[in-house]
Design brief:
The complex is a heterodimer of chains A (589) and B (165). With 589 residues, chain A is mostly helical. Chain A is built from 5 helices and 5 strands; from the N terminus they run H-H-E-E-E-E-E-H-H-H. In chain A, 6% of the residues are buried. The chains are: A mainly alpha (589), B alpha+beta (165).
Chain lengths: 589, 165
């Protein structure tokens, strides 16, 4: 009953939700329509207001024109009369005031002072002037100029309230009609909504009831019957009879299939019951024998086999070990020889390295001396440059001196010429002097030639000195480079000596280590000999082990017989189990 | 033409001395007896409005001497004074205290009278057309061993200036 209740609940809930959605949708649609209606009516009202304003303005204009025409007519009438009496004015003014919209009239003379006025206050009053309490500000005003001599201007005050009221009444009537129409439409829409909701409710309720009833009749009742049957089957009660009397075709098919299954199952179960007793007995036998088999044959056979193989291997291995130990002792002896040789070599290497370090220190000293010599050479080159400079100065001075000599030679030449001239003028007395003068002239020429020679030579000397200077500067630069390189050499030599000393220390250490190695190898040879002796004893023990393993193998043959018996029992059991399988196979299908 | 060899024979044995100098590449000389002195360091004082042949005055030991430009007198172009320029001062019997500027002084040359060939004045050429300097300033030519020496007539130098004016 519970399940049916849930199904009907689901149907009812879904139907009610559909109903609610439909109602909400219709309400929304009606709301939208009402909005549209409101907008339309508001537009209409605005239109009415505009029409009213325009009409009012037009009416006002028309009234004004009408009144002006009226006054004009009056003035024409008055002009046509020959003589105007005061009564005529009064009559005319009363006539004017009889008009429904005119509230007051004033006749004014040339100075704009009113001499006759009429106004309407419950009835028509006539006086000279308008009373001061009479308020003119609410009225429209027309000022009319006349060409009658008595009246200059006519002031006319009138009201437009009558027209306005008329138009307002019309407008209000229209708007009220509109509002009434709108209210009617509202009422009608409400009716529509109500009827729509009731109708949908009815339809949904009918649908719901129909669904619930059909569900109960065609599906739930047969299922309840099937549930009864299945409850009995659950208790292994196979004596149930199944009758198919259901209304629906599909459920009938299901019930028939169930009945066939039940009949097959019943026959299989009876066969199984017969065979089960036999199977249990043979299975008991088999388990007992199988335990023996597992405990003896598997464990023992595998272990003994492995042990026998191991013993054979061990004896072989021990032989090989003995051989290798002998080889080891031989090798150790050769190693000790080579270690001796190594020790000697390392000794000689250490000595050589010490010699190398001493020679390197020598080299360092030499290099230092070389740098000192280079410094001295630089100093000497500088000195030589200075001396060359001095030499150039001296050459310059010499060239000056030679010029001086040349000048003296010229002077001497002139002097000798003059002396010759003097000698010539002295005549024969000066003949001896002229010889002297010519000799002096010759000397002067020679000295001038010598001076020229000297200047040429000195120029050569100057050229040579400049070349020497350049050569000296080159030489000093080279020596400086040499100095730099020798410094770097000395630095590297110092580093090398350090490295060589380290090597020497290492070599000494290596020497000690080699000595230690020598000692250790001697010990090793002793122990190797001992090991060889021990291994011969081990070989004897291994022989003993192999004899014991042979006795174990006899036990294993016994175990094998037992395993044969177990095999036979297992075959019987196999037969039984095959029968059982045949019985159980249809049960699976 | 025939008078001259006889004249040469008279003074054949006599020797004459000349003071030689270079002038515009020519080798010239004057009689040594006309020369008073050779001066090397010359400071000239210019004479305004004087003819260009007069180079100026020179003061030698308190005496003022006139210096002529021998190049201009011999129709060569003038040349500025340099180191080798010298002034030959002449004896007072040649002319009153004057000298000439030469390019370079040479030696004293002693030659035989026979080696000199004197110039013969050619009167057939009219006075206006003849070149005064070539005819009157050159006395003759002396044949030396390797070259010829033009012998100038020193007493004519002052006259040459005056005539030119």
């Amino acid at each position: 009953m519970n399940k049916t209740g849930i199904a009907s609940k689901i149907i009812i809930i879904s139907c009610s939700t559909v109903f609610v959605f439909m109602i909400v949708g219709s309400i929304l649609i009606i709301q939208y329509e009402i909005n549209i209606l409101n907008n339309i009516t508001d537009g209409k009202i605005d239109q009415e207001e505009n029409v009213f304003q325009i009409d009012y303005f037009q009416e006002k204009q028309r009234l004004k024109k009408q009144l002006e025409k009226h006054i004009q007519n009056m003035v024409l009438i008055m002009k046509s009369v020959d003589v105007i009496y005061e009564q005529t004015f009064q009559f005319q003014i009363q006539m004017l005031c009889m008009q429904p919209m005119i509230r007051a009239v004033e006749f004014c003379d040339q100075n704009d002072n009113s001499f006759l006025s009429a106004w309407f206050e419950e009835k028509v009053h006539v006086s000279k002037q308008l009373p001061k309490k009479f308020d003119l500000s609410n009225f429209q005003h027309i000022k009319f100029q006349t060409d009658i001599p008595a009246i200059n201007t006519i002031n006319l005050y009138y009201t437009t309230n009558l027209i306005k009221n008329k138009l307002l009444n019309r407008k209000n009537k229209n708007t009220q009609e509109l509002f009434q129409i709108r209210e009617e439409i509202y009422e009608k829409l409400k009716g529509v909504l109500l009827t729509q909701s009731f109708g949908t409710l009815l339809v949904v309720a009918i649908l719901c009831a129909f669904l619930v009833i059909s569900l109960r009749l065609f599906i739930l009742n047969p299922i309840e019957e099937l549930m009864d049957i299945s409850n009995r089957l659950k208790k292994f009660d196979l004596s149930v009879d199944i009758l198919s009397n259901s209304n629906s075709y599909e459920l009938n098919l299901l019930v028939q299939a169930l009945a066939q299954l039940l009949i097959g199952f019943r026959s299989i179960i009876s066969d199984v019951k017969e065979n089960s007793g036999l199977l249990s007995n043979s299975a008991d036998n088999m388990t007992g024998i199988a335990e023996q088999l597992t405990s003896h044959s598997v464990d023992a056979e595998s272990q003994v086999n492995s042990v026998a193989e191991a013993s054979v291997q061990i004896s072989g291995n021990i032989h090989s070990i003995a051989e290798s130990v002998e080889q080891i002792s031989e090798n150790v002896q050769s190693v000790s020889m080579t270690s001796d040789f190594l020790f000697q070599n390392i000794n000689s290497v250490a000595n050589a390295i010490e010699e190398l370090s001493s020679s390197l220190t020598h080299v360092g000293e030499r290099v230092k001396k070389g740098t000192q010599i280079a410094e001295k050479a630089v100093l000497l080159a500088q000195k030589a440059g200075e001396t060359v400079n001095i030499l150039r100065h001296a050459a310059n001075e010499i060239s000056g001196v030679s010029e001086f000599i040349q000048r003296i030679a010229h002077k001497t030449n002139i002097l000798s010429l003059n002396a010759t001239i003097e000698a010539a003028s002295a005549g024969s007395a000066g003949r001896g002097f002229s010889v002297v003068a010519s000799a002096i002239q010759e000397f002067a020429e020679q000295s001038s030639r010598a001076a020229k020679d000297i200047t040429e030579r000195i120029a050569g000397v100057q050229r040579g000195t400049s070349e020497i200077e350049t050569a000296f500067s080159d030489v000093s630069a080279i020596i400086k480079e040499m100095n730099l390189s020798s410094e770097s050499i000395s630095f590297s030599v110092i580093e090398q000596t350090k490295a060589v000393q380290e090597i020497a220390n290492n070599a000494l250490e290596a020497d000690e280590r080699a000595r230690n190695i020598n000692i250790a190898i001697e010990e090793l040879s002793k122990t190797a000999n001992e090991a060889a002796e021990n291994i011969t004893q081990v070989a004897l023990g291994a022989n003993d082990v192999s004899t014991r393993i042979q006795s174990v193998s006899k036990n294993i043959s016994f175990n094998r017989q037992i395993s044969h018996q177990i095999n036979e029992a297992a075959i019987v059991l196999n037969h039984l189990s095959g029968n059982l399988k045949d019985m159980v196979d249809p049960f699976k299908v | 033409m025939k008078n001259i060899p006889t004249e040469r024979k008279k003074i054949a044995t006599t020797k004459r001395q000349f003071c030689t100098f270079q002038l515009a590449g020519h080798y010239c000389g004057v009689d040594i007896l006309d020369v008073k002195e050779i001066i090397d360091e010359v400071t000239l004082t210019k004479i305004h409005h004087a003819p260009p042949e007069m180079m100026g005055f020179v003061n030698i030991r308190g005496h003022v001497h006139l210096v002529l430009d021998l190049r201009l007198l011999l129709n060569f172009n003038s040349k500025p004074i340099d180191d080798s320029s010298r002034v030959l001062l002449f004896h007072p019997n040649v002319g009153e205290s004057f000298g000439v500027m030469v390019d370079q002084i040479g030696h004293m040359v002693e030659v035989e009278e026979s080696l000199i060939e004197y110039r013969i004045a050619d009167d057939s050429i009219s006075g206006i057309n003849r070149d005064f300097r070539k005819t009157d300033l050159e006395k003759g030519v002396c044949k030396l061993e390797d070259k010829l020496l033009i012998i100038l007539d020193a007493p004519m130098f002052l006259n040459a200036v005056e005539i030119k004016r």
